[in-house]
Specification:
Length: about 475
């Protein structure tokens, strides 16, 4: 870049280019001024403004009304400054660094040199890593595959939605936005990828600049210029590190599968559920009924109980061997114990699954019936292990809905137009669709659109539980805890 030409300091010669600078007089001189100055001041130190010193303007503060050399370093803002900047001269209004921590530039010379070496080492390692592992090409391939998958899914979404276009325009926009958001979380932006590809080039430029600084570092006359170069490298280093950190957050080696639900042959079943139509997801098993995971938990607990019973049998056997000498008696008693335990296993396997329904707002509180009487409305109450008002069964209606039944009465939870209460079977709307959230909570939505909701997020005993429109808040999220 061409250096800016300095003008002569003499006002009458202000249109003349300066060719010399006098350190003692702190002035720039044109050819004519130099002639007279040299006659008067034989021992002054003059700096030729051609060649290496053409950028001498960089030695001076660029703040308005500041004409001093940059001889100080502001530690607070990591910037070079002059006497006026730090308030050492009177009648200077814009002393921006007056209250900052500062020092002479000579005092930070070694510190900046050490920092420069550290940064160069990090940048060299990063450059070698990118080159050796060929990550740029792999990143490009990853992006192209993801982009192809993204376009395939977009095509699938658009094909399905075309069939019900008049009713699904708004939902279509939401799904495309959700898809883009999903890919944004999985794959870095293309702009960042391009910046990442250019890192080796930028590092090479920094290394060249560093070599130039090393050669002339001890030239005290240009120290402020080199310090300024170090600051620029520091700023560039931060940008490169931010780009690398952003790329590192994305695991481009992972195998990602992203799907769109529902399939084409299932479209006819969901015309009446347009509001919640469609979902972008990564794991195929998210489509499966949430009771699969619950059943696995129950099976695990049953297995653990069976193992405990087997340990008890073994313990009893050892005790019998120690207490009795009659082998026949021991054998008969062990057989009886075995039959007894087999009956217990059968009872465990054939038993119904009972749940308590805990609030996301306070897991120590449950949906509570108040009483087992007909027509009562639920409220929130402290969990009690033997509280029959808090124990329920989920009845599969075989139409992707479930009913919530009291385990100790024939009452079912249902919703009418403005109320939620426990009534006899089929007396009002008692079918719920259950939405599973990733953190293990569930949302219960009645076919009439109402959602079981903890009123105003209140968690005191007796807090009202009622009907509300869906908003997915924690007041509408409940954990199903198996009751044994």
């Amino acid at each position: 870049m061409n250096a800016k030409k300095m003008q002569c300091s003499l006002q009458s010669h202000e249109n003349e280019n300066a060719i010399k600078y006098c350190k003692e007089c702190n002035i720039f001189m044109c050819k004519q001024c130099l002639f007279y100055h040299s006659k008067l001041f034989l021992n002054h130190h003059l700096i030729d403004l051609s060649g290496e010193n053409a950028n001498i303007l960089d030695w001076f503060c660029k703040e308005e009304n500041h004409s001093n050399k940059l001889e100080y370093f502001c530690k607070t803002h990591n910037i070079l400054c002059c006497l006026s900047c730090i308030g050492k001269e009177s009648n200077i209004e814009n002393a921006k660094h007056k209250n900052c921590e500062f020092c002479k530039i000579e005092e930070i010379k070694e510190e900046k040199k050490i920092n420069l070496e550290k940064m160069i080492k990090i940048l060299e390692d990063l450059s070698n890593k990118i080159k050796e592992k060929n990550e740029s090409n792999r990143l490009k391939d990853f992006y192209e595959k993801m982009d192809k998958l993204k376009e395939e899914l977009k095509s699938k979404i658009l094909k399905i939605i075309t069939k019900i276009r008049n009713k699904l325009n708004e939902r279509e926009d939401e799904l495309i936005s959700q898809l883009d958001s999903t890919f944004s979380n999985l794959c870095p932006p293309q702009k960042t990828i391009k910046e990442y590809e250019n890192i080796p080039i930028k590092i090479k430029d920094i290394l060249e600049k560093k070599k130039e600084i090393d050669k002339k570092w001890n030239n005290s006359a240009k120290l402020n210029s080199y310090i300024n170069d170090c600051i620029n490298i520091e700023n560039e280093f931060r940008k490169l590190k931010e780009t690398n950190d952003l790329i590192s957050k994305h695991n481009i080696n992972q195998k990602i599968q992203i799907y769109f639900y529902p399939e084409e042959n299932e479209v006819d079943q969901i015309y009446n559920d347009i509001k919640s139509f469609g979902k972008i997801y990564q794991q195929e098993n998210e489509r499966k009924n949430f009771f699969i995971s619950e059943s696995m938990k129950v099976n695990k607990e049953l297995e653990n109980k069976i193992k405990e019973l087997e340990k008890e049998i073994k313990k009893n056997k050892n005790e019998y061997n120690n207490l009795k000498n009659d082998k026949e008696v021991i054998k008969r008693e062990l057989e009886q114990e075995k039959d007894k335990n087999n009956n217990i296993r059968k009872q465990l396997k054939n038993s119904k699954i009972h749940f308590t329904i805990r609030s996301h707002c306070d897991l120590g509180k449950c949906l509570d019936m108040k009483s087992l009487e007909y027509g009562n409305s639920p409220h929130l109450w402290n969990y009690g292990h033997h509280n029959v008002n808090q124990i329920f069964e989920l009845i599969n209606n075989n139409d992707e809905t479930y009913s919530i039944k009291s385990a100790f009465s024939d009452l079912y939870l249902g919703m009418d137009n403005d109320k939620i209460s426990f009534r006899r079977r089929n007396e009002n709307s008692q079918s719920f669709k259950i939405t599973h959230f990733e953190d293990g909570y569930y949302l219960f939505q009645n076919l009439n659109g109402g959602v079981i909701d903890l009123s105003d997020f209140q968690t005191h005993n007796g807090a009202s539980i009622g009907k509300c429109g869906r908003n997915n808040s924690t007041a509408q999220q409940w954990k199903l805890v198996i009751h044994l």
